[in-house]
Amino acid sequence: MMKRYWKLIILTAAVVLILGLFYTKTGTANDIGPSFTIKKIQGNEEEISNILLDANYYQSRPAGSGHSLQISAEGTKYFNEQSIAEQLFGFGWDKQIERWQKEYRGYMRGKWPSLSSFFENGKFLAYADVNYNFIESIGSSRDFTFDIDILHKETEDRVKRETEVPNRNQYYSMSVENVQVIDDVLKVFTSNQVEHQGNHEIEIHVYTFDIQTGELLDDKIIVEEKESLDANQWAEIMILNKHEHIGEEEYVLAKVLNVEHVQDAENSGDYVEQVQQLYFVSYNVETGEIKQFEIPEIKPFLTAGISPIPDKALISGSTVYFAIFTTDEIDVYSYSLETNSLQGSQKVPLEKSFSDSPVIKVAHERIYIVEWINKRDTDKSIIVADVESGEIVYSGRIELQEPEEHSGEYELYIHDIIFN
């Protein structure tokens, strides 16, 4: 009898062993590096309760890649502490993803855990992604299809459909940047890479689907590079809406930045990047109206080589906030997408001099400034201010949790601020 089932027994044992290894943690914090925390200097600690600082730790002078970790007010989580499953499928997964996986386990099965692919309100949980297959060799056109899955919460009915992307063979890459549900349609905003006159250029599309059937109704280009660029020029086109915002939005906003490599004759003669043009394109989610505009007030910063980068923009309703760093202060501009006019500006004075490239994000009506290089003697690491008033509501520093056990020098490089 045993001979009949020996293969099944061996297979079962192998699966158990593999799963055990898959979900076993690969290390502990003590094996990898010290624990850090964010210590309050002044203000309300609730202001940083929902943030994670994505960082790399080096024990002494940087060499190699260091150790990846995330720091919060609660402590430290190293990448190598996670199980193999956690390392593969989400170091520091967003809490929204975890909630959906618990509440809608069947619906979430097989979905890529990227917030930009999801939309949720009281009636729907919607998902849109792009799948592809190589047609020929690597780098050639690909065969793209939409994967649409809409859950009607009240009835628990699902509309699941795969649809070919129109003109799919002309694209080299596609990514879903934002998903919205308005009235009876699902709108999927994507960034498409297309070849034009030998260059790979970006187009921003909005694809409209019927919410009841999943049928593709329309494909519209919101932004495209209209002018041919020389070999020493390039354009950056991207959607500025936050990926972590998965609810209803009035506008989707894109940035178009044209840059040229020019020779710096006054200094070393090396080539430097010079901003030639910066403009924005807004899309009204309800009406479909598209507007292109510039903001004259930020042109002096562009001339000086300072540009508001994507992570420093916040879209709140019909208002967009831009933050520009100028060594000893942050200038925050509020611009109305409804009237296409500047509403006001606010200065956030910095109590300490930050390095040339602090990590800056605007979110939840707040501006977050984090020193990107932190050492043992860094006196202040993080500042949070109100975008409307400029008032600093929190300041703190990143500290070792057990400094007496780690007496040597270290460097901590902050790459990003993640909202959880």
Task: Describe the protein in words.
- The chain is mostly beta strands and 420 residues long.
- It contains six helices and 26 strands.
- The chain has helices at residues 2-22, 29-32, 84-89, 95-103, 105-108, 299-303; strands spanning 36-43, 51-58, 67-72, 75-78, 118-120, 124-134, 142-152, 158-164, 171-182, 185-196, 199-210, 216-224, 233-239, 251-263, 271-284, 290-293, 313-316, 319-325, 329-336, 341-349, 359-363, 366-370, 373-375, 382-386, 392-400, 411-419.
- The strands form six sheets. The protein has a five-stranded antiparallel sheet, with no helix packed on it. A five-stranded antiparallel sheet has the order 4-3-2-26-23, with no helix packed on it.
- A hairpin with a 3-residue loop joins β18 and β19.
- The longest helix is centred in the N-terminal third of the chain and has 21 residues, at 2-22.
- The mean pLDDT is 81.
Strand order of the largest sheet: 1-25-24-22-21
The helicity comes to: 10-25%
| Gyration radius, rounded | 24 Å
Largest sheet, described in full? 5 strands, antiparallel
The percent range for strand residues is over 45%
Structural class determined from secondary elements: mainly beta
Shape descriptor reads: globular
DSSP strand tally? 26
Number of continuous helical runs? 6
List the helices and strands and how they pair.
Elements: H1 2-22, H2 29-32, E1 36-43, E2 51-58, E3 67-72, E4 75-78, H3 84-89, H4 95-103, H5 105-108, E5 118-120, E6 124-134, E7 142-152, E8 158-164, E9 171-182, E10 185-196, E11 199-210, E12 216-224, E13 233-239, E14 251-263, E15 271-284, E16 290-293, H6 299-303, E17 313-316, E18 319-325, E19 329-336, E20 341-349, E21 359-363, E22 366-370, E23 373-375, E24 382-386, E25 392-400, E26 411-419
Antiparallel strand pairs: 1-25, 2-3, 2-26, 3-4, 5-6, 6-7, 7-8, 9-10, 10-11, 11-12, 13-14, 14-15, 15-16, 17-18, 18-19, 19-20, 21-22, 22-24, 23-26, 24-25
